[in-house]
Design a protein that fits this description.
The chain contains 14 helices and 47 strands. The protein is rod-shaped, with a radius of gyration of 64 Å.
Length: 1019
């Protein structure tokens, strides 16, 4: 009975187990699954669930979970459980297959994911009960077949899909501390293929794996998931191949060997961006060890390549066609970082900001070694080689370099060392003004941020060798552009605490130069020797045009100099200037010389210029038709009216000056007839000139081929108005050459004559006092020439008065003036003195002649006759003798005699004599007294007027006498003839006497004499 019951129970249990297993388990699993998911606002849909309770195999088809949108679905799930392992505290799965699983991930506009309800709001807590059951897992095989993941971001419309995903897992056992072998293969609209496989073991936790990604597109992924980051990845396509080993025990160890290829990467952050067509890393080996002793990292890479690189940052636009790094190595021990790169090559590098652009065709860096310590760093470079470096601001401002190499670079925070710098074909061109170099300023402007300058530590630098070959420099300013080519510079031991040697060589068509210098920066000592030849001075012409009205200036200059500096500057130089010429705006040479040699010595005591030899100097002085002096026209009016503080002038000493064969050309085109003359064979020798000592200068030359000139000057050269003595001698100057001046100012040509001139000027404290001793030998005027500028004086008369019997004219002409007066003009002073002289001569000729001959000139030009007669006074006879002396001494003058009578005086005298004759006759015939005779005559002729006295009666009777005018005229003529005869008797030639118009001088009854005027005129 018991057996039957046992069999029945067993059968029931078997049937129940079978029915429950085949039918109950599927139903219950669907029921509870639906209930659980419903609590999460999710719907579960299952097409069919099959479970075999005997083989523990389960098949689930058409499973899907959905909320407001689909979440996950499976076409089929197959599970083969290993139930026996449950007795070993192990959940065993012999086989697990997921067929065509699809996961739908959706993010709404608020950033909420559709699977958010699956996530618990609170973290599950772990039981502290140490007696809880510990289970192991043992999965023999897991396959995910043809899986896919679909992702959509409703905020921006981004969609991503992973398709054809295949994943396999074998032999996972937590009991044996082995997590199995994994392999993943997938494709996507983001990537063509993703393959991963790995072997995982526990205790210690170790992963040996491999991952490969093909054509992964990052743009949509970045837009959806990482858009809140400060940078954005606009585009990139990634290909990678990674083999790795990760070990976790008491320390963390990671070893990788990877290759990475990124195409069309574009990264942006605000206005900054980075893009490259391709980025390659090959054989990147990483070794990382994190232990109690700290972190150790080692990174080795055989090649890193970047192609078509472009970047924008801080206003810069940069790019390169290739950046290639070979054999790089990075190590880090937690404190110190070391970077080593065997070789770096860059091609077609460019960078630009504002208007400045830098391009580099090729760059090569060899054996770079960078070490970063806790508070220090060190950079070592074997060599840097640059080819075709160009820095451009515009067409006129650039710097080009064919080749540049830096060798043996050693850089530390407070030091820089270089074995050598070599540069070839450096070509610099820049516009320069008062703000500096436009090119240099453009580079300074590249740094847009203003940084506070921290207090700098002492910095040591050393450059063992510097070579600049075939350098070219072009400087352009607002006036001109000048270029110097073929500059070679060699330097050694450039250091802040040593002595540097510099050799400079320039072989340009304009400048030839060789220089050797030593500079000790520690002691600030400089020694330099220079040998230079400047082929031309044309280049300074545009600059001088700011101050001078010139067309051109030119010369060849040779310089040999030694320069020394230590606290004080000293210079010793020999300068030779040849073929100098200065042309005015009319292209006429106004100044020139063949050669000028001099020695310059400069030191703290002053400037010494010695051994000055000037050969064939030539100066052209010209007065234009407008009366402008060409030398004054050379100087432009200064626009700077500000007062400049006077600085203490240095001591200047000029010694041994020799001038040979100088010449001066002078022309005056302001005259009716152009005046031309020259002074040749000018020579002088001056011992010394000092700026606090009187210097004596002697100068002589030939004037107009025949005349002689000599100038003696005693002067304080740098204070000429303090005390100066000037003596000038001119002999045998041909006055005929001065016809242009005589025609303009005198109104006559000069037919003949010679000039001898002695000038003696003294200047004391700005006051000029001078004497001019002038001798005119045989001065003869020619024909008269009308001139509006001629003096309104009888020139010929003046010259005749001045000229003696030997045809000599001697004049002493004193002048004076104040040099400090703005109205001072030497020419004006001299001209006024000459005009005054002539005026004195012609207005008071007898006084001038008398003074010249030592004769009293008082009344010399008068001949006094007794009224009514032709009788001379006794004093007039003496004057006639004096006039005779003058006539003999001045043969070119003519005395003019003016026949004269006085109507009143002469008539009264004649009438009175007639009355007196009548009275005398009565006295003789009637024996009357004179008074009675007058009374009788008065009574006969005058009845109306009462007789008062004899004198009154005589006056009344004389007035009653009628005298004819012819009588007076005859008396005047006789007086003039008498005077002429007397002059001739005393030696005056007849042709030196000339009668002029008759003159009535009226007079009075009381006049005792009738005066004839003797004048002077010239032949």
């Amino acid at each position: 009975m018991k057996t039957k019951i046992s069999i029945a129970i067993t059968a029931f249990l078997v049937v129940f187990y079978t029915v429950f297993g085949f039918f109950g388990v599927p139903k219950l699993s669907v029921y509870y699954g639906t209930k659980i998911l419903a609590s999460m606002d999710l719907n579960l849909s299952v097409k069919q669930v099959k479970f075999n309770p005997f083989t523990y195999e389960a098949n689930i088809t058409g499973l899907s979970i959905q909320g407001s949108s689909p979440l996950i679905k499976f076409d089929e799930i197959y599970v083969d459980l290993d139930a026996i392992n449950l007795f070993k505290k192990t959940i065993g799965i012999a086989d697990l297959k997921l067929t065509n699983p699809t996961i739908f991930i959706q993010k709404d506009k608020n950033g909420t994911y559709n699977f958010a309800s699956l996530l618990s709001d609170e973290s599950s807590t772990k039981s502290d009960d140490n007696s809880s059951l510990e289970l192991y897992y043992d999965i023999k095989k897991l396959d995910i077949i043809n899986a896919s993941i679909a992702y959509i971001d409703l905020g921006n419309g981004f969609e991503a899909k992973l398709n054809d995903m295949s994943y396999s897992l074998e032999n996972l056992s937590t009991k044996r501390n082995y997590l199995g072998s994994h392999k993943l293969l997938t494709s996507s609209n983001l990537a063509d293929k993703i393959i991963t496989d790995a072997n995982i073991t526990l205790n210690p936790f170790t992963i040996n794996g491999h991952a490969k990604i093909t054509e992964l597109k990052t743009t949509p992924f970045w837009v959806s998931f990482l858009k809140e980051l400060p940078i954005s990845l606009n585009s990139a396509i990634i290909n990678s191949d990674l083999a790795y080993t990760l070990r976790l025990d008491e320390s963390v160890t990671l070893d990788t060997n990877a290759s990475l290829n990124i195409k069309n990467i574009s990264v942006a952050s605000g206005k900054d961006s980075f893009a490259t067509k391709e980025f390659d890393i090959w054989n990147l080996k990483l070794n990382l060890l994190q232990s109690q002793n700290g972190l150790n990292l080692k990174l080795d890479n055989s090649n890193l390549n970047i192609y078509d690189f472009k970047a924008k940052f801080d206003g810069f636009d940069a790019g390169a066609s290739e950046i290639l790094l070979k054999d790089s190595n990075v190590t880090f021990d937690g404190e110190n970082l070391t970077l080593k790169i065997a070789k770096t090559n860059t091609n077609s590098l460019s960078a630009s900001k504002l208007d400045t652009k830098i391009t580099l065709n090729k760059a090569e860096i060899n054996d770079a070694n960078f070490t970063l310590l806790a508070k220090n760093f060190a950079l070592l470079l074997s060599s840097i080689n640059l080819a075709n470096l160009k820095a451009t601001n515009d067409k006129a401002n650039f710097a080009n370099l064919s080749n540049l190499s830096l060798n043996g670079l050693n850089l530390a925070p407070n030091s820089l060392k270089l074995d050598s710098i070599n540069a070839t074909n450096l070509d610099i061109s820049s516009f320069v003004n008062d703000k500096g170099s436009k090119l240099a300023n453009a580079f300074l402007a590249l740094s847009s941020s203003k940084k506070t300058q921290a207090k700098s530590e002492p910095f040591d630098f050393e450059i063992k060798e510097l070579n600049l070959n075939k350098t070219k420099v072009a400087i352009k300013d607002e006036i001109s552009k000048n270029t110097v080519s073929n500059i070679d510079i060699k330097a050694k031991n450039i250091a802040n605490n040593g002595e540097a040697k510099f050799d400079i060589s320039i072989n340009d068509k304009l400048l030839k130069l060789s220089s050797n210098s030593s500079i000790n920066m520690a002691t600030n000592k400089v020694e330099s020797s220079i040998n230079a030849t400047l082929q031309s001075l044309h280049f300074i012409t545009p600059y001088l045009k700011n101050y001078l009205n010139i067309k051109d200036i030119n010369a060849k200059v040779n310089l040999k100099a030694n320069i020394n500096y230590q606290k004080d500057l000293s210079l010793n130089a020999n300068v030779k200037t040849t073929n100098f010429s200065l042309k005015d705006t009319n292209n006429d040479v106004v100044a020139a010389f063949t050669s000028l040699n001099k020695t310059l010595n400069l030191n703290k005591n002053g400037i010494k210029i010695s051994n000055i030899a000037l050969t064939n100097p030539r100066l052209k002085v010209e007065i234009s038709k407008d009366g402008e002096l060409n030398l004054l026209k050379l100087i432009k009016d200064s626009k700077d009216t500000s007062k400049k503080e006077s600085s203490k002038s240095p001591n200047i000493y000029i010694k041994n000056i020799n001038i040979k064969n100088g010449s001066l050309e002078f022309s005056d085109k302001s005259l009716p007839i152009v005046f031309d003359t020259n002074i040749t064979k000018i020579s002088t020798a001056i011992n010394d000139i000092k700026n606090k000592t009187r210097s004596d200068i002697a100068l002589n030359g030939i004037v107009a081929k025949q005349g002689f000139s000599e100038i003696l000057l005693s002067i304080y050269p740098f204070e000429p108005t303090f005390s100066t003595d000037l003596i000038m001698h001119f002999k045998n100057l041909n006055l005929k050459n001065a016809t242009p001046y005589s025609a303009k100012f005198l109104g006559y040509e000069i037919a003949d004559g010679r000039l001898n001139l002695n000038l003696n000027y003294k200047i004391k404290d700005g006051k000029l006092n001078g004497s001019n001793t002038i001798n005119l030998d045989n001065l003869t005027l020619g024909k008269e020439i009308p001139s509006s500028d001629a003096v309104s004086l009888p020139v010929k008369l003046g010259l005749a008065i001045l000229k003696d019997s030997n045809n000599q004219i001697d004049i002493d002409l004193p002048i004076s003036g104040d040099l400090n007066s703005p109205e001072f003009s030497y020419g004006s002073i001299v001209f006024k003195a000459i005009v005054q002289l002539f005026s004195d001569v012609v207005t008071s000729p007898f006084r001038f002649i008398g003074a010249a001959l030592g004769i009293s000139s008082e009344g010399i030009n008068n001949a006094d006759f007794i009224p009514g007669t032709t009788l001379l006074s006794e004093t007039s006879e003496e004057n006639i003798k004096k006039l005779a002396q003058i006539a003999i001494k001045k043969p070119d003058i003519i005395f003019t005699i003016t026949p004269a009578y006085a109507t009143i005086s002469d008539k009264y005298a004649i009438s009175k004599r007639i009355i007196q004759k009548e009275a005398t006759l009565l006295m003789n015939t009637k024996n009357l007294s004179y008074e009675d005779a007058i009374k009788q005559i008065y009574a006969q002729k005058i009845n109306k007027i009462k007789f008062q006295n004899v004198d009154q009666a005589v006056d009344v009777l004389a007035d009653d006498v009628k005298i004819k005018d012819d009588t007076l005229l005859k008396i005047a003529q006789k007086r003039a003839l008498f005077l002429s005869d007397e002059l001739q008797k005393n030696g005056v030639k007849k042709e030196q006497i000339d009668m002029i118009n008759l003159q009535d001088i009226s007079g009075s009854k009381a006049d005792k004499f009738i005066r004839l005027q003797v004048g002077i005129k010239t032949k």
